[in-house]
Design a protein that fits this description.
The chain is an all-alpha fold. Helices cover 75% and strands 0% of the residues. The C terminus is likely disordered. Pfam families: MFS_1.
Length: 460
């Protein structure tokens, strides 16, 4: 016990060193490729299949590997997830089936394990920034998906001797288009394979090896905390991923993108990739790194409350005068980009960070997995709900000739209410700024009780 306490005290008092940055890069590599896979531009049928598998498979993976991370140790399970994912690339089976183990094992395992490992490596003064930096790699994955989409489509466009911005009124789809999305998806796998070796070199964290299922004492101390982390993650993902996965419909509804039938498949790929890249560059990535810079100064609770409030304000500002934005597309994109900025400088980041800090060591990975799975359920609700609303928008036209988009307008009102619920549930979550993991989880109190009682505490 003294040895473990000494290790934890050393970690809490240590200054930033190279191994901290190395852990951020290695852990963040998975989130880079996760975002790249989920947000790169693919044909509608392929995108729907991959997103469906991702949402269902990841939820199960978060629960399973979160539990396993507490039972077997973080490092061992971290390596298992990546090894099993790598095997999926060598099976000669249908592409959509090959995506199931890839997304389940990699994304599902990455969430609880990456957050827990980074939390247990870092000291209490910079812990939030380092966990946020791991998660911020998602922003670069979105940027990477947009860049690769633009580059590959431009190359294939040049083969047809057509300028990259040309409009094809016939809406043709060249035979090479099928290769384009496969190349885009395949490139995302390369970094995953390279990161396997690096992950196997990470040392095991100084966690307790004893595994105990939920106790009455745990529920008394942390029951509301778990409800808070799970519910806030659920609500933010309903709003965030419904926006992110279906940016194309929103851009088209306000007339920033021309109708799909007026473009060839390669034209459409280039323009959608550019729109997503621009939104990530101006809104998503700055929001992630604003969290990294200030989270250990102003705290998790303050950032989350502030961001939920501003997201609600900006969504209402988009929804109430909705038809105004169809005539002012640049202003719309600025307002829309601000919702992404505050989602990432706020609950999309903090909901990932906090569950790795406030729960006991022997249940830390499990509780993070439960919270993340609740978020994945929110993604499913948001994606399906927003897709339904976007497909059922009013077909009438505005004065500018663009779709009125009644479905999207109502969606913005609904998402505003969802953000209010997320703000309210934030009050169930304690602040972890500047506090050690043992202080937040109250592990020290539990150890004292174990020493005072010869029989210890019986698990439920």
């Amino acid at each position: 016990m003294a040895s473990r306490d000494g290790v934890l005290a050393t970690l809490d008092s240590s200054k930033m060193q190279w191994y901290h940055y190395k852990a951020v890069i290695i852990s963040g590599m998975g989130f880079f490729t996760d975002a790249y896979d989920l947000f790169c531009v693919l044909p509608p049928a392929t995108a729907a299949a991959i997103n469906g598998v991702a949402l269902c498979g990841t939820l199960l993976g978060q629960l399973f590997f979160g539990l396993l991370g507490d039972r077997m140790g973080r490092k061992k399970v971290y390596g298992i997830t990546l090894f099993l994912m790598a095997l999926s690339f060598f099976h000669r089976i249908r592409p959509i089936l090959r995506q199931l183990p890839q997304i389940w094992f990699r994304i599902g395992g990455d969430y609880p394990l990456s957050a827990t490992i980074m939390a247990e490596y870092a000291n209490k003064k910079t812990r939030g920034s380092f966990i946020a930096a791991v998660f911020a790699m998602q922003g670069y994955g979105i940027l990477g998906g947009g860049l690769v989409g633009m580059a590959v489509s431009a190359v294939f466009r040049s083969l047809h001797h057509a300028p990259p911005y040309s409009v094809n009124p016939v809406g043709s789809t060249p035979p090479e288009a099928d290769y384009v999305w496969r190349i885009i998806l395949m490139l995302g796998a390369l970094l995953v394979v390279l990161s396997y070796y690096w992950r196997t070199k990470l040392p095991e964290t100084a966690s307790k090896s004893k595994f105990v299922l939920f106790l009455k004492e745990f529920l008394r101390r942390h029951g509301l905390h778990l409800i808070g982390t799970a519910s806030t993650w659920f609500f933010v993902d309903v709003a965030y991923y419904s926006q992110n996965l279906f940016q194309k419909e929103i851009f088209s509804a306000v007339g920033w993108l021309p109708p799909a039938e007026t473009m060839s498949a390669l034209d459409e790929l280039f323009k959608i990739s550019f729109a997503q890249f621009l939104m990530a560059l101006c809104g998503t990535v700055p929001g992630y790194w604003a969290t990294v810079l200030v989270i250990d100064r102003i705290g998790r609770f303050t950032i989350q409350i502030m961001a939920f409030f501003f997201i609600t304000v900006f969504m209402l500002a988009l929804a109430i005068p909705y038809h105004h934005w169809t005539l002012n597309k640049t202003e719309f994109l600025i307002m829309y980009g601000l919702t992404f900025f505050f989602a990432n400088f706020g609950p999309n980041s903090t909901t990932f960070i906090v569950p790795a800090e406030i729960f006991p060591a022997r249940l830390r990975s499990t509780c993070h997995g439960i919270s993340a799975a609740a978020g994945k359920a929110g993604e499913t609700v948001g994606a399906l709900g927003f897709l339904y609303a976007a497909q059922n928008q009013d077909k009438s036209k505005t004065d500018a000739g663009y779709p009125a988009g009644i479905g999207i307008k109502n969606s913005l009102f609904i998402l505003s209410g969802i953000n209010v619920l997320g703000l309210w549930c934030t009050f169930f979550v304690p602040e972890a700024k500047g506090r050690s993991l043992e202080e937040m989880s109250r592990d020290d109190e539990e150890e004292e009780q174990d020493h005072q009682s010869p029989s210890g505490v019986e698990s439920v």
